[in-house]
Design goal:
By secondary structure, the protein is mainly alpha-helical. Helix content is 60%, strand content 5%. The strands form two sheets. It has a two-stranded antiparallel sheet with strand order 1-2. A hairpin with a 3-residue loop joins strand 1 (165-168) and strand 2 (172-175). Helix 7 (96-125) packs antiparallel against helix 8 (130-140) and helix 10 packs antiparallel against helix 11 (200-219).
Amino acid sequence: MSKWEKKFGKYAIPNLTIILLGCYIVGYFFTWLLPGVMSYLTLNPYAIMHGQIWRLITWVIAPPTVANSYRDIIFILIMLMFYFSLGTSLERVWGTWRYNVYIFTGILLTVAGSFVCMLLLYIIYGTGSAAIVGSICSIGAWQFSTFYINMSIFLAYAATFPDAQVLLMFVIPVRVKWLGIAYGVMLTLEMVEFLMSGAWFSVAAIAASLINFLIFMLKAKNNLRLNPKQMKRRAEFRQDIKRNPKVTTHKCAVCGRTEEDDPTLEFRFCSKCNGNYEYCQYHLFTHEHKV
C-alpha cells in the first residue's frame, strides 16, 4: 500500500465523505422531482454494454433509502449526519489515501458484481435470450445503491473503533463492535436468503461490501492492534514526511541524534518504557525507563 501511496497518493480526494453525501442528496432530488430519470442512471450492466457507459458512475447517486414522508426526511438527515461522522473519523485516522482506496474498491467490486450477474443470466438463459437478460438486468439494477457501501463504512468503523459507543434508538448506549458484529451477521444471512431465492443482483451488492471489508481486515490486521490515537499519529507522521522530506524517521529520546546525524546508528523502541520512546544503540540499555 505504501508504494502505491507514494506514487498516487497526491491524487487522493480529500473529504470524500462529503462528496458521497452530496451524491446522496442529488439522488434524492432526482427521486422526488424527476423519478423517471433515475431509471437511466442505475447500474444496469446490459445497458452499459449497449452504450450507456455513464451508468458506471451515475449509479453512485442512487440513494440508500426512499423518502415518502416528512418522517423519512428526518431519518435521512440523521443518517447523513451519522455517516458523515463515521467517514470523517475513518479518513482522519486512516489517512486520505487509504480511505479513498477503501471506498473506490467497494465501488469497483460492486460494478464487477453487476457484470458477473449478467454473465450468470446468459449462462442460465442462453446467449439467444438477450431480451430476457436485459429485462432482468433493468429490474436488478435497482438493488445497487449506496446502502451497502454505507454498511461497509460502518463495519470498517466498528473494526477501527471497537470500544466507541453509540446510542441505540437515541437511548441505549452500545459499543459499536457489537453493532458491527450484528450487522455483519445480518448481511450474511440476508445474502444467503437472496442466494437461495435466486436474487443474484442483491447477492452481488451485499457480497461486494463484505468482500471489501474482508480485504480491509486482511490488509489492516497489524494496524488494528493500534488504538485510534496511535493510528492517527502514524497518519499525521506520514503526512509530515510528504510535506517535509527532511523529517527524520528515528530519534533517540536521550541524546536526540537521528539517522541524519549518523547513518550507521541503530534505533530500537524500549518495551519497558511507558510510551513510544526510541533510543539509539548507545542509550538503549543505559537510559532510565519512563513510567
